Every structure is written in structure tokens, then in C-alpha cells.
Amino acid sequence: MSVRVAMVTALFPPSVGGIQTHTLRLSQKLAARGAKVAVLTRHHAGLPAREWLDGVEVLRLGQGDAPRALATGTYLSGCLAELARRRASLDVVHAHQLLSPTSVGLAARALLGLPLIVNPHACGAIGDVAQTGRLRLEATRRLASGFVCISSPIRQELEEAGVAPERLWSVPNGVDLETFRPATPEERASLRASLGLAPEGPLVVYAGRLAPEKGPDVLLSAWARVHRAVPSARLAILGDGALLGALREAAAREGLGASVLFTGPVRDVPAWLRAADVFALPSRTEGLPVALLEGMAAGLVCVATRVGGTPEVLENGRHGRLVAPERPEALAEGLVEALTRPEARAWGTAARERVEARYSLDAVADRTLELYEQVMRRAGARAQTGQVRWG
Question: pTM for the complete prediction?
């Protein structure tokens, strides 16, 4: 019998971000393996209330554009009503983030008896454990059937919060190795032409939200130093967000306009990565960054900050460069090295091999199915003894 899962996430495409990307691609991989997946996410104006994406049913619920309290309340009630309606055809709820999706899962666990998997995505001061309330954290610790730990720091935070080790599963984020792959010289030249880029000269790419926690302001500060050292280099900043206006102003003020391209949101991130030479990740905090996995899968030389789960993915001096966060001068030094050091090209090859060995989305989907099946077996055993909750 195929697994029937409700994937509950407040963040989902077409909005952009690592959680959105991972949830969609994981759901599609699970569906390709025979699982029946329904994604319950927030509704926003202009989006269909229900659609199918490569075998995945997507339901958009609530009033996502309303004031925060109303948006959250209508999302929670809409999700719970949908889960209750589908109770007989569901095996497990997989909630992403220890926020409103977990509140949905807790209600479904307590009222409907559905097994609950909780999947935190961030750690540190603005991470899931730190941001959730004490009561919700305690309820989650007691009621959740299992936890997905995408990185060691998240696992450690959950252990410190009192979650039993046997309910913690190490399942990293993953990357589609076919979609994100290195380009041949001919493909790279063709991609640059199609994107309107110069055929020659090194290209550094940043892909992500333009939000403070992602550190694009640190990258732009570093770029002034990089531009002086490597005048032919260009920086493409892919994405949108609250910092876009300030970043444009800073680039103009520093005289960097000709060397920095702000693309806004882009649909074909793989094309930009395959056209590039170096990938930059200047984050102040991370769980396990999907964007970094994508850059590594594309065979790029990667320069990233030493935060969250990033050091687990990228080994300094072997797959790229790790630098301290909030240090533009250190980031600039790493980028200049990646752009000018001949042996740095080998880091990109090693990075591709690293994600092939450890972060394939196919392997992540298989591991996730194993978790679902174990949780379902435990739930069945407990139902036979009259137990509903985890202690």
C-alpha cells in the first residue's frame, strides 16, 4: 500500500526560498515513488485554490493576504478541516517549520490521531526552536511521532529541548542532480548568450531571498574589494526581497553598477548556475542551505559562511571556501581566491562529487519514506494497545 501524506507548509512556490524549493521537489519525488501527496499551504491572491504539480495535489487554504492574525487563523482552521475531511485516506502529516504548520499537525495528532512528522528548517537565534513558543515546543516534544533533522545543529537544539533521540531522524535537504549539473564549455557559452551575458569573464552568482538573514548586504560590501582585485568579474544577484532597493542604492553609491546585475526573481535558476563560475552564500544563519547544494551540484566553486549546517556540506579547502559570517573582508578574500587560484577549479569538481554521494534528492526521498513507514508501524502498534500519544 502506498503512503498517503499531507505535507503542511506555509511557504510554497511560486514564492521563492529553500523551504519552498525543497518541499515541492521532495513531494514530487515521493509521488514518483507511488506516495499520494497533498500539500496544504496558504492561499494568496491570483493563485488557484487547488492544482496538480507533477502528481502532487496542492491545496491553498485560508486568507494569506489578510492581516497576520486573520491569515494564520484561517490557514489553521482550513488545514484542520481539510485533514478531518480526508482522515480516512491519510497515513501521516509532515509539518515544515515549528510554526503554524506544526500547530496544524499538533491539532491533527490530538484530535484525529494522525501521526506527525515535524521538520524544522532553521537553527540559531532566528531558528525554529528559538522562535516557537514554550507551550508549542512542549506540545511538539510530547506529541510528535518523529522529527526530521536536516543538520547536526538542528538535531542538537531538539535534543537540548528534551526530544528523545529515538525520535530524531537525520535526513538532509537534497538536490536534483539531473536538473542541477555542470555545463560543458559549449553549453556554458550557449547559456550565457541566452541570458544576455558576456561570453567571457568570470561570473559569480548569488541566488536567494534578499533578506537580512541571507547576508546579501555583506556580499555587496565584499564585492567592492573583489571588483578592485578582479575587474573583469561580474556578480549576478538572483532574487527579490526587502533589501533590493537598499542594495541597488549601495551598488550605485560604490560605483559598482557595471559589475553587478540585479535580476529580480528568475524562473530558471539552473541556467544561471550552469553559466557561472563561482557561487556565493553570505548567510548570517542557515539550517542546511538548498541553494548551496544547487551550486555544488552545478560544479561551481563555492564560497560560503560558516553557519548552521553549511560546514557539514562544504569542507573548507576541498569543496570551496568557508569564511566567517559578517566579515566582508573575509568573504572578499575567499571570492578572489576562488576567481584567481588555478587549483580552485578542482573544488567545483569535488563539490559535485560530494552532493552526488550524500545529498541526492532521490536518496532523501527514500530516507523520508523509511521514516514514514516506521512512524506508521509504531502508530499501528500503539493503536492496538490503546495508546495515542508519545510520552
Answer: 0.92
